Amino acid sequence: MNAYNTLADHVGGTPLVRLQRLPGALAAARGNVVLAKLEGDNPAGSVKDRPALSMILRAEARGDIRPGDTLIEATSGNTGIALAMAAAMRGYRMVLVMPENQSLERRQTMRAYGAELVLTPRDGGMELARDVAVRLRDERHGVILDQFANPDNPLAHYEGTGPEIWEQTAGRVTHFVSSMGTTGTIMGVSRYLKERNPDVCIVGCQPEEGSQIAGIRKWPQAYLPKIFEPSRVDRIESVGQGEAEELTRRLAREEGIFAGVSSGGALVVALRLAAELENATIVSIICDRGDRYLSTGVFPA
């Protein structure tokens, strides 16, 4: 009897493509290549599919959870969607806590997977959502996987995203650029790439003061993700909301890549590097697809 794949087998293994128009003549003249890792090709549409499945499967293997249990997680969107998908696959009740100002598409997608939503006031941001999730856990409403402190989050990228980038570039990657939210992606990829070549430069992207870019955060010290290790990031660049949104629109128009604003933010940084370096192979994470941002006004109606 044929052994067919399940949906879980198609998390990861995403394409890495060369940007043809956005880098421009200057980058080409300097011998630089800018590559985009298309994480929107994951089953639930984002890079968060990797840690979501990793956290659930490894918690199961340890005996921490079992199908039928209730899982709780604070999320701004992509992790919640990915966890909702993984919970549906594995047979869990999923309760997601998120600020009320997140896009309608995100909420509808989570509910489509069967997740239950607890919406918190927008003024409290993700910090309040995290506090509410902890309160629900303490009141014994379920188990928190905790993407912000769970080592199974960066482990998914150490075992998957990092090796894929290394293999897809034949070890030629010189710079890796990622937006920073939970920091799982940049932590796991940095660990892997630095083990293969300590000279690979790891560049993180954070929002400028006053900018609100979905998927990119600069956390107050009290809420800094516990998985974050500053020594694994060589350079941190700030990005404005306007430039991130504009590059996101250009990415669709000029490269045919329809993505979210955090991807545009990371590419702002990748193109900065391409304008200053020589003979560099720059890999930037395209975190998700743009269809979950249509109601936000980022894209023209």
Report on this model:
- This protein is α/β, with parallel strands linked by helices.
- 39% of the residues lie in helices and 17% in strands.
- The protein contains nine helices and ten strands.
- Helix 2 (49-62) packs across helix 6 (152-168).
- The mean pLDDT is 95.
Concise structural overview:
By secondary structure, the chain is an alpha/beta fold. It has 2 domains: 7-46 and 151-286, Rossmann fold (3-Layer(aba) Sandwich), CATH 3.40.50.1100; 48-144, Rossmann fold, CATH 3.40.50.1100. Helix content is 39%, strand content 17%.
Sum up the structure in keywords.
about 300 residues, alpha/beta, Rossmann fold, 2 domains, 6-stranded mixed β-sheet, 4-stranded parallel β-sheet, about 40% helix
Number of domains: 2
Instruction: State the separation between the terminal residues, measured CA to CA.
Output: 50 Å
CATH class of the largest domain: Alpha Beta
Strand pairing plus helix content: what structural class? alpha/beta
**What's the CATH topology label of the largest domain?**
Rossmann fold
- The helix/strand order is EHEHEHEHEHEHEHEEHHE
Strand line-up across the major sheet? 1-2-10-7-8-9
Quaternary organisation: single chain
**Unreliable parts:** none
